[in-house]
Amino acid sequence: MNPQPSTPAGTAHDEAVDQARDEIVRVGTSLFARGYVHASAGNISAKVGDHHLITPTDAALGFLEPGRLAQVDAHGEQIAGDRASKTLTLHRRICAADPTARFVVHTHSTHLVALTLAGVWSAADVLPPLTPYYVMKVGHVPLIPYHRPGDPRVADLVTALIADRAASRTPIRAVLLDRLGPVVWGPDAATALAVLEELEETARLWLLTDRRPEPLPDHALDELRSTFNAAW
C-alpha cells in the first residue's frame, strides 16, 4: 500500500479561508436580494485565525467574487484580493474587543438609517424594548455620533462601549452609526444576521407606529432575564 501524502502546512487554514470567502459572498447576495443593502453601501468581514477577510472598497455586496475579497494578516497588512474596505480598522477592532466576534456586518438598512434621521429613543438605546425577541436577540444598541465613513475614531468609540457593556454584564451585539446604519457582529454569519434582521424589523415597527408604543414593562423584562438569560 502506498503511503498517504502528508498534509501540507497551512492547508486547514487555507480551507477555512476559502469557506469564509464563500460565506461572505453568500451573505452579501442574500442581503442585496432582500433589500438590506444597495449600490456599493455596506461591508462584511470574517475572522479566520488571526487573519481577516473583508469586502473590497466600493464593492456591491450582491455581486461579490470570492477571489477578490481582501485578506489581511495579523498585523493588518493586506496579503490578497482587492483593496480592503475603509472600515477594516473598525471590523478588526470589534473582533479584538469582543472575543466572541468573528463575523461583522455593516449595512445602510433603510429603516435604521431613517431612525437616526427621525430621532432615536435614546443615545444609549436607539430603540425601546418593544418585543421579547428584540430583547433576547438584539439587546442594547447604542448610537455612535456621526463621523465620516471610515473615520478611525469610530473604532475607539465602539470598542469603549463593548468594554463598558461587558463590565456591566449587558454585552452588546450591535451599534448604530448616525446616518450610516448598523454594525452587527457575532460568532458566525447566522448569529450576526439574526441580530441585523431583528434590529431592522424593530426599527420598521417603531417608525410605522409613529414611535408611540410603550416599552415592555419592568416585570416582563425581568421575566425575560430570568427565563432566557436576556442581557438587558
UniProtKB/TrEMBL annotation:
Signal peptide: none annotated. The keyword Metal-binding applies. SUPFAM superfamilies: AraD/HMP-PK domain-like. GO terms for molecular function: aldehyde-lyase activity; metal ion binding. It comes from the Bacteria. GO terms for biological process: pentose catabolic process. Keywords: Lyase, Metal-binding. InterPro entries: Aldolase_class_II_sugar_metab, Aldolase_II/adducin_N, Aldolase_II/adducin_N_sf. Residues 22-207 form the Class II aldolase/adducin N-terminal domain. GO terms for cellular component: cytosol. This is Ribulose-5-phosphate 4-epimerase/fuculose-1-phosphate aldolase. It comes from Streptomyces violarus.
